[in-house]
Input
Amino acid sequence: MRFDIVTLFPDCFTSVLSSGLLGKALAKQIAQVNLVNPRDFTTDKHHKADDEPYGGGVGMLMKPEPIFTAVESLPILPRREIILMSPQGQVMNQPLLRELATNYDQLVVICGHYEGVDERVLHLVTREVSLGDFILTGGEIPSMALINGVIRLLPGTVGKVESLKAESFEEGLLDYPQYTRPANFRGWKVPDVLLSGNHAEIARWRYEQQIQRTGDRRPDLLEKWQQEKQGSRGAEEQG
Output
């Protein structure tokens, strides 16, 4: 998969793209990340990529011309999505990341900055994505989260594919508690069932813990999961 990141601050990505599983995936060419600075596509001597908003207001807006020219300079793969990282966009979640990892060969990600981008940039993008209901100084951090979340789902990035299926949000529930050595740390003991070797009992315990933890921490997710489960049962009974 190819990522083209349109950003005024490409240096922000250096450490993120060279560390951990992400760095290994890029080294193995599972994915490719190309950083594009819209300043390189400006035509004035100061390489100005922002300007004051019409009608007045606080702050500056990113100009449309450098963004359009930067994106238009890129190769076009058959399955391409042009994403603007924006607090007004679709909130990033696991189903969205899986959709992007499965259905696209190229993600062009535009990182807004200052007070945002000129509204006409929306004629260029095919999707707006938000990291959540809060404001950051720019779209670089949200874009890093998107890149990380998508690349880890690509075949070959994570060694044990099964681990992707048993984590939070994949089945609509939060993950179950997990433990490693020592079995007793400062009086906190690993649950006996995990030491039993009874895989059926361990699976049952983990499933129950997922339901309980989701109910305690994210009752909204539990309610949605229960509704979907009831809907699936109803469809099976009708079938």
